[in-house]
Every structure is written in C-alpha cells, then in structure tokens.
C-alpha cells in the first residue's frame, strides 16, 4: 500500500511521499501534531498487534524504556490492507558505539525485560515453535550461501558449515522436549533497535513473542551487531559478551538446565535465524561490514566453546 495512504489512515498529513528509513520494511519518520513519530509495519493480525501494544504498555508501566503506541484520535495500531501498522514516538538519543558501558546496560535492559515476564502470558503473544527444519532445507540454504559467498568473493568452509547445520537438524527433537524456561520478550534484541538516552531505549519491539529464554540470549550473541553501521563488523568479543551477561545477571539467574543446554540452543538459533539471513537476503552480502560479520558469526557457530553463560 502507498505510504501516503498509510499516513492518511492515521490522520497524518504529508506533502510528499515519505521514504522508509529502513531498507527491508516500511518505517516512516514523520510529524504528528508537532512531534516526531515513527509509522511502521507491526505484527498481524490486528488482534496480535493489539496484544503487542498491551505488552509494551505493561513493560513501560514497570519501568522499561520501550516504545508503545502513542495516543491518537484514531485507532493505533490499525489494520491497513493486508498488514497492520502502528505509530510510535520517535526517540532521540545516541547510536550504539560498542563501549563496554553501553553493552553492560543493554544486557541489563534485556535482563529486566526477562525478569518481568509473567509466568502465564496474558497477552497471548505467539509462542516459539520452530523445530521442523529438514535436511533438504539446510542443503538448499547452504547452496544459496555458497553462491552468495562466491559472488562476493568470500571464503567460507561450506562443507564444514553444512555438516554442522545438518547436525543441528538432528538435535531438534531433543531440544524441543527440554523444559526450558520461556519468557515474553521483544525477540529481536540488537544494537540497531536501541537508542541510548543515555540509558538504552528499545525502539522496535515488534517481533515480541514467548520464546525459550536462552534462545533470546543466543540471538543477541549472534546478531547484536547486525545491520548497525556504528557497530563492529564482528560478533561480541569475549570481554563484550561477559559485559553483556554481567548486566543481564543483575536481574536473571539462569537454571542449570539452561546452562547445560546452551550449546545446542545457540546452534539451533543459528539454524533458525542466521542461516535464513545468509541464504535468503542476498542484498546484505553487498556490504563489506555484513560480509565480515557473517564470517565472524560462522566462526563462532563452528567453535563456540569460549562463549558460555
């Protein structure tokens, strides 16, 4: 749907067609009643979008710095065409610069969010249930990754990567049967979704779901620096990972089962999140920083023993 029509549905006037500030999804930085706001696609259906709004409001009421839909003279969020859209406040602040203090406070914010998670989900967010990867899917994805790597002159040990990914497929049933603690969480916790004010402020909670707690930590380890031009083009160093965990542990005590299951969980999250990104989004390979990050993430995936909980 045209951007102008989306804005009109929220009674936001625009003299010219806005341009998305994010290349992979509509995210518009515009003005509403004298204030800067963000209009973006959110979860669908409308029922899920409203559930997400209720969840972010709950987090705000409990002291979490996170955006939540602003009050308007029309419904917010709204279903517009086949998708749902929401209007958030625009948060002014500093970008992530990978200082240990920024990383520590980012870990603390995620820990606070996890600690607030209710035992039962009153918001009925979607629950993680991605344990159905097949060997065929892995083989197809690895072929795509090999093609992207060759096109962009990146040297990857494709045979070893494939072998490791196939071993992850065989571990899915075991992982699914574990009684891992689950939490409600934004589940896309990375640097480009934070603004420092100077405390970290979460500006994109739209992937919120109920997921195994250590899956969320694994995603942060693997992709915290993804798509962030002020971040290093490698995964966390061990020092940075320990700083992140130090902040996180101010609020959360992980179980022995979680610590014992960390390696298998980390590899599964790579299978679910990173394999897809490397295989299905060829345009990200065009950026040198992303190519370097991919190499770093693959190295961690192949040898992750140093990165413990």
Task: Give a verbal description of the structure.
This protein has 309 residues and is of the alpha+beta class. It has two domains: 3-89, 2-Layer Sandwich (Phosphorylase Kinase, domain 1); 100-302, Aminoglycoside 3'-phosphotransferase, Chain: A, domain 2, CATH 3.90.1200.10. Helices cover 44% and strands 12% of the residues. It has eleven helices and eight strands. The protein has helices spanning 3-9, 46-61, 100-116, 135-151, 158-170, 172-177, 213-223, 238-248, 256-260, 262-280, 288-302, and strands at 27-32, 35-42, 78-80, 83-89, 182-185, 194-196, 200-202, 209-212. The chain has a four-stranded antiparallel β-sheet with strand order 1-2-4-3, covered by helices on one side. A two-stranded antiparallel ribbon has the order 5-8. Helix 3 packs parallel to helix 8 (238-248) and helix 4 packs antiparallel against helix 5 (158-170). The termini are far apart. The mean pLDDT is 96. Keywords: Kinase, Transferase. This is Serine kinase. One of its GO terms (molecular function) is kinase activity. Residues 26-226 form the Aminoglycoside phosphotransferase domain. It comes from Virgibacillus pantothenticus.
Can you summarize this structure?
This protein has 309 residues and is α+β, with helices and mostly antiparallel strands.
Provide key terms for this protein.
four-stranded antiparallel sheet; Phosphorylase Kinase, domain 1; kinase activity; Kinase-like_dom_sf; Aminoglycoside_PTrfase; two-stranded antiparallel ribbon; Aminoglycoside 3'-phosphotransferase, Chain: A, domain 2; 11 helices; 309 residues
